[in-house]
């Protein structure tokens, strides 16, 4: 069972100073930061604390909290990476469905309320079991490094790199 990351996150041992997405946007070490793809106006990355394998986040490239604040180009890049994520997840993981989630504002549950991002969580028939309820543990079948390698390979096979 590989689930140590959730406990650290819940206990706050890995508190992030400032905005996670702004910090990652400034880096170019994609594997270390779990970045799968970039566009001028958006970023696609794995969630370090996934609910399911291939749980990704698509963040806009600027520190804004609402869709209304985006330029047409930023919206296009954001949706382009969302579609690319869908295709890569479908190709590599074959889920039976996807959950899409965006929390706008702290009261809505956003961990980074002022930086717009969308979660895509793959779902499979029967993917829930007693472990999250009884043991407060989510069982994932692979490491984040393996997920990154699989999705990065799927993305490379789907679309030429832009920007």
TrEMBL record:
One example GO MF annotation: catalytic activity
Matching InterPro entries: AP-4-A_phosphorylase (IPR052908), FHIT (IPR039383), HIT-like (IPR011146), HIT-like_sf (IPR036265)
Active site positions, chain numbering: 117 (tele-amp-histidine intermediate)
Pfam family name, one: HIT
Residues that coordinate or bind substrate: 47, 119
Domain HIT residues, every copy: 20-130
Short sequence motif Histidine triad motif: positions: 115-119
Keyword line: Nucleotide-binding
PANTHER family in the cross-refs: AP-4-A PHOSPHORYLASE, HIT FAMILY HYDROLASE
Protein name: HIT domain-containing protein
Organism: Eiseniibacteriota bacterium
